[in-house]
């Protein structure tokens, strides 16, 4: 049994330049824990924010990465943990940019035989967040929503799942090539926010479809842009900080139009469920891999993650990175 492994670590949060390969010792497992030989991981905006110190991902020093796939090679004991032994799994856990990881069973999910480990690396953060979004849309008792950053990997998955469920999506992007991209995957309503008059056009669309639910990945004035176009009594859910700026929403929208801003984070929602409920969500994602899968544009090894991360944050459209964690 292996005793040491390589991991991509950071000693002080604040800059991705701090990332480095470090040899680590595999700790002793306690009951309910699993030792997983990592095969693949990926890069998400939350990884970048965590390394900069803008995300509740634990104190440095730490190993990067929040999701991935691999094979369980050892159990710390316990009825639940023992059932995972030798199984291929997908996991949502801090520290996946490594050859091995020790984690609890609560956010590790067995894979269907039909799911490749490469695809399984991205089955958690984006698809499970989309499942949360769908729940929120249905909770608003509406069949429609608006989202920005719609050309992101998550945005495209949201569009596809909405189409499958018969929901109407209004999608905001910044460039014409992104409009073309989303039209090609079945998005009917795509707005280019770099064009004159986009907000008036969007407001009319939202009115015609009764949109009272919006999803904001950007923050800053993009939050108020969504608040301005949704119907009275609506809610803007913020789940990201791509602009690096705090969310803005005007008092008139909140006081006189009854609109509100709420934050959304995947982890509390997942932990509000039993393990069986969490697994059922994961299973639904796996069964809909045709629309919730991720298209990777490049594969890198751990030593090359730093450079790939910098490029990804400059342009995340069609720039999804798969990390091969085995050195």
Automatic annotation (TrEMBL):
What keywords is this UniProt entry annotated with? NADP, Oxidoreductase
Domain Enoyl reductase (ER), residue spans:
14-323
MF terms in GO:
NADPH binding; oxidoreductase activity, acting on NAD(P)H
Q: Which domain of life is it from?
A: Eukaryota
SMART domains documented for this protein: PKS_ER (SM00829)
Q: Which InterPro entries match?
A: ADH-like_C, ADH-like_N, ER, GroES-like_sf, NAD(P)-bd_dom_sf
PANTHER family in the record: QUINONE OXIDOREDUCTASE PIG3, QUINONE OXIDOREDUCTASE PIG3-RELATED
Protein name in the entry: Enoyl reductase (ER) domain-containing protein
Species of provenance: Stentor coeruleus
